[in-house]
């Protein structure tokens, strides 16, 4: 799985961090997504898919 | 939420006993509504292994697209329509859907378990998801009048954007999030904007007086005129074109563009006579089940929220995705075996350089307390109290920090413990 994020689309909702905190974080100053792990291990995949599904800005793309 | 260890003797809501044969898993699922909630439901079903037939019905002719940018990036021209697309055609193809776009559902026959499309075709289902969203309210006098806009569809937003290019005199009726965002975009585009709010302080019912006052101040700074404590009772027009609005106090405001941001109602007209329980939306149990093999997701679902024990409807973008996924899970579990849907609602609004984020339910809170401030006067986090519990948190330009307080909302934390170490701090205007 390869994860990409679109920081221009991100609205700083933090829903991705709630779903997969080992893969996503937010910048302190404006809450925009920070990708911690672009190729998460298999045990993270379900959480990352959940993050992509609930992202209200559609800012997370997955290539599997 | 932990499931109880034993279900012995506990009847399903439908009246079937647990000991009866497990219901046959559905092999025909129809989802009516091809926006965020409907899309989450079909994606959730496939992701959870559902391999039966799956039909997605949408009244608009477009592939599923996202609505929050309509009053923000699309309206401002920062984005074009292709950025609204929720999934690529290839991803949708991979879901193996019978995609019925531009075909409104006209009726529901729960006895035959069939959805009737406007063209007369009948779609049989074992499980049906109603995700038909909202219909925006219109103001008397707006019917058929050019220059009077709602903001719900991409066509609505493009028509208004086109009008903004002519720098109109504009009245925005309603200062909720859609109206306030439209006003912010319009004034930046050079329109002459008056924002009319029924409440004395815009958004006070949601955010409280203090943050509402701060927001109103930001609108004024940017050149938006505010008319507060007044309802727009009519759109006035001449020769089929808007000329302005009439207010509840009798005054008239001239305008050639009128935006109706006065809320929306659940799109349930097509369900009349179906036997479903309809009120403020499709009434569901805590698992989003409405009976007769019907489930509801998104704006249209009025479900018994475990968090409050009250029938609840949420019109947020994240709610659409979360409830669609929950319905997918619960359809596959079967009626009576689904998990209660118990989200912490989340919504955001971008106005000027303000990023507002809300977790939980803040409307009608008993108290608002600022618990954290940033370096600037418009950076803060506030907690909201209902009874003796924390019911919500609002952040202004503090997204990451605001998320840190979400756990208090999720737990329904004790108010005094949550704010006990914080000094009361007034909100700067």
Automatic annotation (TrEMBL), chain A:
Q: Does the keyword Cell wall biogenesis/degradation belong to this entry? A: no
Q: Which InterPro entries does this entry report, sorted A to Z?
A: 3Fe4S_ferredoxin, Fe-S_cluster_ET
Gene3D superfamilies, A to Z: 3.30.70.20
GO-annotated molecular function? 3 iron, 4 sulfur cluster binding; electron transfer activity; iron ion binding
Q: Name one Pfam family in it.
A: Fer4_13
Which cofactors does this protein require?
A: [3Fe-4S] cluster
Recite the UniProt keywords alphabetically.
Answer: 3Fe-4S, Electron transport, Iron, Iron-sulfur, Metal-binding, Transport
**PANTHER family, per database record:** FERREDOXIN
What's the stated role of this polypeptide? Answer: Ferredoxins are iron-sulfur proteins that transfer electrons in a wide variety of metabolic reactions.
Quote the protein name from its UniProt record: Ferredoxin
């Amino acid at each position: 799985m390869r994860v990409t994020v679109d920081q221009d689309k991100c609205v700083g909702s933090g829903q991705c961090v709630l779903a997969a905190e080992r893969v996503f974080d937010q910048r302190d100053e404006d809450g925009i997504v920070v990708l911690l792990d672009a190729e998460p291990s298999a045990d993270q995949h379900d959480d990352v898919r959940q993050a992509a599904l609930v992202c209200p800005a559609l800012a997370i793309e997955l290539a599997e | 939420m932990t499931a109880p260890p034993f279900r012995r003797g506990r009847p399903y809501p439908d009246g079937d006993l647990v000991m009866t044969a497990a219901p046959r898993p559905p092999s025909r699922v129809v989802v009516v509504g091809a926006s965020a909630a409907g899309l989450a439901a079909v994606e959730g079903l496939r992701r959870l292994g559902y391999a039966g037939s799956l039909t997605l019905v949408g009244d608009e002719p477009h592939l599923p697209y996202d609505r929050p940018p309509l009053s923000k990036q699309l309206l401002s021209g920062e984005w074009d329509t292709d950025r609204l697309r929720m999934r690529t055609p290839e991803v949708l193809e991979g879901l193996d859907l019978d995609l019925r776009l531009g075909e409104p559902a006209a009726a529901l026959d729960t006895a035959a378990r069939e959805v009737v499309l406007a063209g007369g075709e009948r779609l049989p289902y074992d499980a049906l998801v109603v995700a038909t969203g909202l219909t925006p309210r219109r103001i008397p006098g707006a019917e058929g009048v050019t220059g009077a806009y709602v903001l719900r569809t991409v066509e609505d937003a493009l028509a208004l954007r086109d009008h903004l290019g002519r720098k109109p005199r504009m009245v925005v009726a309603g200062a909720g999030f859609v109206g306030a965002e439209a006003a912010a975009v319009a004034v930046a585009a050079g329109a002459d904007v008056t924002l009319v709010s029924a409440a004395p302080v815009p958004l006070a019912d949601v955010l409280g007086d203090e943050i509402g006052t701060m927001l109103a101040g930001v609108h004024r700074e940017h050149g938006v005129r505010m008319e507060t404590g007044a309802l727009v009772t009519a759109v006035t027009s001449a020769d089929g074109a808007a000329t302005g609005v009439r207010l509840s106090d009798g005054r008239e405001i001239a305008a050639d563009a009128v935006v109706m941001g006065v809320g929306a109602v659940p799109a349930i007209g097509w369900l009349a006579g179906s036997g479903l329980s309809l009120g403020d939306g499709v009434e569901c149990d805590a698992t989003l089940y409405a009976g007769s093999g019907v489930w509801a997701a998104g704006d249209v679902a009025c479900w018994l929220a475990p968090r409050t024990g009250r029938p609840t409807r949420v019109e947020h973008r994240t709610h659409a995705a979360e409830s669609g996924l929950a319905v997918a899970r619960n359809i596959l579990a079967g009626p009576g075996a689904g998990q209660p849907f118990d989200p912490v609602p989340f919504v955001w609004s971008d106005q000027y350089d303000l990023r507002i984020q809300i977790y939980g339910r803040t409307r009608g809170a008993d108290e608002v307390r600022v618990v954290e401030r940033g370096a600037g006067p418009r950076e803060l986090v506030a907690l909201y109290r209902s009874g003796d519990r924390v019911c919500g948190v609002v952040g202004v330009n503090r997204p990451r920090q605001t998320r840190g307080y979400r756990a208090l909302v999720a737990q329904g934390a004790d108010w005094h413990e949550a704010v006990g170490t914080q000094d009361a701090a007034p909100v700067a205007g």
